[in-house]
Batch of 3 targets.
Target 1
Amino acid sequence: MTDASLKRWSYTALVLPGVLIYAAVIVIPIFYSLGLSFTEWSGFGAPEFVGFDNYTTIFSDPVFLHGLRNNLLIVAVSVLGQIPIGFVLAYVLYRRMVKGRDFFETMIFLPITISAVVVAILWDRIFSPWGLFTALVRDITANPDWIMTISENRQLAIVPILFVILWRYIGIYMIIYLANLQKIDSSMIEAAVLDGASESQILTRVILPSMLTVLFYTSILAISGSLKSFDLIFAMTAGGPAHYTEVVSIYMYNNTFTFNKWGVGNAVSIVIVLLSVGLITVVRSLFGRVTRRYGWEE
Amino acid sequence: MANKRIRTAGPVGKTIAYAVMLLFTLLTVVPIIWLFYSSFKTHGQIVQAPLPPTLEPTFSNYVEAWTVGNLGTYLLNSIIYTGVATTATVFLGLSVGYGFAKFRYRISKILIGFFMIGLLITVHSVIVPLFIIETRIGLANTRLGVIIPYIAFGLPLAVYLGMAYIRSMPDSIMESARIDGAGYLAIFRRIIVPMSAPVMTTITILTFISHWNEFVFVFVLTSGERLRSLPVGINAFAGTLVNNFGLQFAALVIGIVPMILFYLFFHRQMKQGFAEGAVKV
């Protein structure tokens, strides 16, 4: 066997298994899904072609639109909550403002290791009339009958879930920012100090620009993570009561497996893909604009 | 460290900093502590007085959760799914990474882009068609039917990390092995893999966490108790126990104990793994 053909065989042997598994699980299903999204199918018999009907059904369904709104709220909370708070915590630790950094790091990171299902059930109990939160509020407000009624409000029912999502993921961002802060070239900071820069100036002129790439990638992480939040919400409220806390992924699950509308379910699938790609493109162009405007090109 | 050069924060700043850190730490830890000591109470005790811990612990909660809740089976399944999928992901990440990093073929560029798109695709985009396909080919409701998707979703990051790491290995090592007559696969086995311990650790930790806590695939692609993993099992068992909080909490604690132990021993590596995974991306 020649050198060249040995090389080709080896490359194939090394790369093909991974590529095949990946294609079989991710690429093919998406195209299959695209096809099915244009049909009406109950899971039995043959699918029936209906063009864009499923898509129009989805976008005129108030349940879907409410779910979409909830998803966007989750994205907003993730990007505007987890990221800044994570950054603040990382900065506090980086600047050695407190002792016992390892301890704080370890504790705040802990929730991420707990499965979403456990987190969901735990917090559902904490907010329940017999839970920790309720007991504390009752003690503080001296009202022995207080219970949380926010889930009866269509617009606000999602708030407890937003809080739990925030609770669970702040640690990741803190760790990522901390690691990146530590990678900043210390000579840049020393130079700034020697030039007489104040802390806030160092923060805005030196530190934040170096973090721009990480901020970009963590925004993407936050967005794709928020669109994924199925496990936690499903286990906590299953989208209830009355679809108040439903998100698009649960809508998809219900349509497919509960109502047996597979065409619609697949259409929602495709919408989710388009949504993530769309949002990420928006973030990318935003970051591009910010970078160019402030001259922070790397 | 440059930190010593910047004026350290004054006492006001420090107090606020401590307050903030303490607040978030309590926020994180108190729910878990409450869960833990409440799991030793009976339902009646919890409902009447949620706040204080009990002086007469009820261990039967745990016994019952384990036996009635069938948590042993679920634990075993979680171990199988996570163990097999993580091992496969690590090795495939390295082998594909080696192919992309050191074999200069143009097709690698296309395939790399192919894999990177996977980072944007969520489980939900594929779960419905995957269910249909697996049912058609008879893979639904099998262990393999869960493990293969796990591997596929772990691959983009594993390949990326493996590729980046192997790329930084000097070509000369491989070239001299070639001159000595070693085939590429032998080089992979004898040189690349042993030298890749750090990135293998990172990939292992990241995929381990995501697989262990995974819910959707097992939930949709399997049915019945025999194949359930811990998260799905706990949702089925504990999620419906609205009348016995003590029992429910015991099940939850059993559900999180493996991960917490893992975390206590490996938290440094875990944090490093997460930071690295995101930094490289």
Target 2
Amino acid sequence: MQHTLEVLIEAVPFLLGGVGTTLVIVVGGMLLGLVLGVPLAVGQVYGSAPVRRAVGLYVWFFRGIPILVLLFLFYYGLFHLIGLNLSAVSAAVLVLGMTSAAYQSQIFRGSILSLSLGQFRAASALGMSDAQAIWAIILPQALRLSLPGWSNEYSIMLKDSALVFVLGATEIMARTHFVASREYQHMPLYITAALLYFLLTWAGVRALRALESRVAIRGYGRT
Amino acid sequence: MFKKISVIASVAVTLGLMQAPATAADKFVNGIDANFPPFAYVDKAGKPGGFDVDSVDWIAKRMGFEVSHQPVDWDGIIPSLLAKKIDFICSGMSITEERAKRVNFTDAYWEVKNVFVVKADSGLTEDDLLKGGKRIGVQQGTPEGDWLRDNKDKNGWNFTLRYYDSSPMAVEDVLNGRIDAAGMNDAPAKDAASKKPVKVAATFGKIDTFGCAVRKEDTALLKTLNDGYKALMADTFWQGLIEKYEP
């Protein structure tokens, strides 16, 4: 017991060092997912048939393959084949971002569809083009309504980031493994790692909740 | 407000992403399995350490190149080498014919036996383990694992083979009672026995030799590493390493 505590106390700063890498992966992946997901959603709702099919294919591909498989496929295979030399973290951000875009696009699509068609018609009646209506009227509302689903995606992304250790990125999970292999204190260390992830999830979700209140539009729900 | 957030976020992500590896003429990256003490591990300060890490650092100084050690998942370590993410592998890697088809090896620098690790109070013998319907754990992608698998039917043995991500994990499962023995090289076995209530029960299989792996086209690097090892083994530092790590 004494030995376990010593190992843990020594290991905590080392594990905390991995938080930076984990956050880079999570934030990078979420932002890439956002930047790709919104156009995908808009394309799926308002686009022509070929556009809708293309988006459907993208979503089907990235939702259909486990992230672990995608990480190996892209990092050791596709990226190398096309001559893209990325570090483990960059590759992870790309892969997780593209996958998240597939899931996020469905969150946004749901929010866009929940807005009544009257909004779009009113915008047209005022002389706005489709693009203007989407940019100025639909998206601001839809994105705000997507925040609850988005914070869900954040907590999923945080957990998926733990898989990136297989590419050699020294985030929290990799560091936990290193210490466990050296000290043979697997259980206490994995519990510590679990607590760390739990804290990060909780903090992030709380922050997003605050953001939700800040940007909430009156007239929806109980406001 | 969103503009502020997005600017800060994109700057942070850009900074975070500026870590693509650069291999200049004299800087090499050694890929290691950081879950393989005493040959390679990550110490309490977060720096790579171990018998192979220290050997390579000494050789780098002697032969005049810079080296950094990159932990890589063992399953992907040869693909990593071939994809040029790392330049060579000096990390308790056994020289096998199958691997030699895809990479070139330096001359052998170390020899290991393969042993079974069991609970300290267990009375199992080599015969029990091979023929008594027991469960044996090995690290994925290792010659000892392949040896057990290939020779099982040939010799009519009776055991169940389970694959683990690393030898320390297999040892943990021995302690958990999920497997009866873990098969691994004798060096990590000794390491495990010094830290947990397990012991070495018996040897099995062939004697494995360790060598460093390089890409087939890197003939100059191969020669550098071979010369480096020759120099290292003639120096007293080698003995010092052996005493320190007891591989």
Target 3
Amino acid sequence: MMHLSPETLVDLAEGGHDASADVHLEACARCREEVASLRAALAEVVAVHGDVPEPSPLFWDHLSARVRAAVAEDPPAAPWWRASWRPMAAGLAAAAVLVLAVAVLAPAPTGPAVTSSVEMAAVTLPPLDVADDASLDWLADLASDVEWGDALIPGDAAAVAVDDLNDAERVELHRILQEALAQPGV
Amino acid sequence: MTQEGAPPADEALRSLSEPALVEACLEGRPGAFDLIVERHRRAVYQICYRFVNNHEDASDLSQDVFLRAFRGLKQFKGQSALGTWLYRISVNLCLNRVSVKRPISEPIDEQQFVDTHSETAPDQVLRQERSLLVREAVARLPKKQRTTLVLRVFQDLSHQEIAGMLGISVGAVKANVFHALQNLKKMIGEKA
């Protein structure tokens, strides 16, 4: 004989009614005993329902005072933009350094007509006068409280490598990049 | 009753609806959050007590609940009553707490039970002993069973409400209640 499911037994123990379950209970002593047993256990638990010991009357004001003190000591949350823009600023700063390195060091265009947008940006733009570029002020503000070490994305070998180059090496890197960009099909 | 260290909440605050009181808190109006604490501290304490079964932990948890509520007040959208929202915070904190620390039951002679004048002294002692036995048994239940039983029996939530709160199905709620009661029967039967 199939017996009632735990879910149905709980419903019955809690006072619910189920016509098909009632029919089964009439024929099944085991399920009747199970329901009775669950009801008894439930009654035991319900009987202690009100038994949260009442604390001292002084407790409530003391609790309010503790909460007040905890709230007063709680540091204010950082603005949402600081939490999300910090890593973004670090990434932007690193990317900006690379872009600036290419743009500022780029000589006047002498090669054949370029076809890629990267080549156009590197060759046709006049050398940047950083003092006049407002967007760089904005970027500088963002990056002002970012430690350079934080700006480097862990594992970003290219950024680390560029950082380690001396001036002569950077010029040579620029020359190599220019030659590569000048290749047909790049 | 004047709260220690704080001026009494002015009448204007006391007459505010709950959403308006929350708004007053967010505006930084003095006394607004104190009033929220005053109104809900008993309910919060009781739900915490039911999970941890001792005054000290219930007191600490209650403080944490209100601190968490203060921090998250901006996220309270008013879709439920403030009490319900505080209730959810209480349950979540209690669930995290009881997963780390097994509840401690206070000895019977340190508890302040409500005096029931109709009972004889021996009956009262027996009732108190039985009550402690049941509460200790509830405290020893596995976390999911204890949580479901507390919410169902002590907080009178429906199966659907419990399912929504715990992120489980109604069937799972009922199964937890079933197994909790089975385990209680076994534990109480062993100790009695």
